Amino acid sequence: MGDEATQELSVTPDAVAGGRTHVSDEVVEKIAVVAARSVPGVAELGGDVARFFNAVLDRVGLDQVGDARRGCSAHVTDGSAVVNLVLVIEAGHPVPQVTDGVRAAVTAAVEAYGLRADEINIRVDDVALGDPAATSV
């Protein structure tokens, strides 16, 4: 037994196998939604119909259904992403300031995951005026 030698196998970075990596559209949508929601002045995401159905789902206890990608669609091709967002902006926040902030935040978030953000398209669908009952005297 004393004559047995131990052979070590050296692994170098050059020994990494090749292959392709594809990031799905859904992953980019989730990244974009989180980034967009972090911007001051963004009340919520999604158009009127989507918000209506999500409100119904919320009331029946299915509040997490569809939330991760609400108000966002994305398409990834060859490492570049096109992101489309539908926003509701809080009253009193200038639209250009909010949309510029969303564009910057989404671009930074997408690029942090190793993709290129080719387009961040934003449609402002509504303005959140707050709770009218809370502001009445």
Task: Summarize the entry for a quick read.
This protein is α+β, with helices and mostly antiparallel strands and 137 residues long.
Describe the secondary-structure layout.
Layout: H1 25-37, E1 42-45, H2 48-59, E2 72-77, E3 80-90, H3 95-112, E4 116-128, H4 132-135
Parallel strand pairs: 3-4
Antiparallel strand pairs: 1-3, 2-3
Helix pairs in contact: 1-3
Task: Explain the overall architecture.
The chain has 137 residues and is an alpha+beta fold. The protein has four helices and four strands. It has helices at residues 25-37, 48-59, 95-112, 132-135, and strands at residues 42-45, 72-77, 80-90, 116-128. Strands 1, 2, 3 and 4 form a four-stranded mixed sheet that branches. Helix 3 (95-112) links the parallel strand 3 and strand 4 (116-128). Helix 1 (25-37) crosses helix 3 (95-112). The radius of gyration is 22 Å and the shape is elongated. The chain starts with 24 loop residues before the first helix and ends with a helix. 22% of the residues are buried.
